[in-house]
Write a structure and sequence with these properties.
mainly alpha
């Protein structure tokens, strides 16, 4: 049952969540406002970006030393990571939209 105290608590939680909007640190983010809401998300996205950058550097080094199979495998892994990162971002956005729909527009 929806009560006034439940609505007030949901509104308070929503305001607290929206207060912690971080600048977008993700290079692969498609929106400028960013969907990162906590420091943990910031750290995780930076770690993912460093891993992807490391794979790209290692593939360039392996191309320099003419290890074509290794370079191809590293590039495939990098694209797979990028696709997984994009899918995870879409799932997070869908969850966020669903959470917003639970909050009534007016009390």
């Amino acid at each position: 049952m929806i009560t006034r105290s439940n609505l007030a608590e949901q509104l308070r939680e929503y305001q607290i969540r929206s207060k912690y909007d971080w600048a977008s640190v993700s290079f692969f983010s498609s929106t400028a406002n960013g969907n990162i809401t906590s420091r943990v998300d910031v750290v995780i996205s930076v770690i993912w970006e460093l891993i992807i950058l490391a794979f790209l550097v290692f593939s360039a080094v392996s191309l320099y030393f003419r290890y074509m199979r290794l370079a191809f495998c590293l590039i495939c892994i990098t694209t797979l990571l990028l696709v997984c990162l994009k899918i995870m971002k879409q799932v997070r956005l869908a969850r966020k939209r669903k959470r917003r729909m639970l909050l009534p527009l007016s009390m």
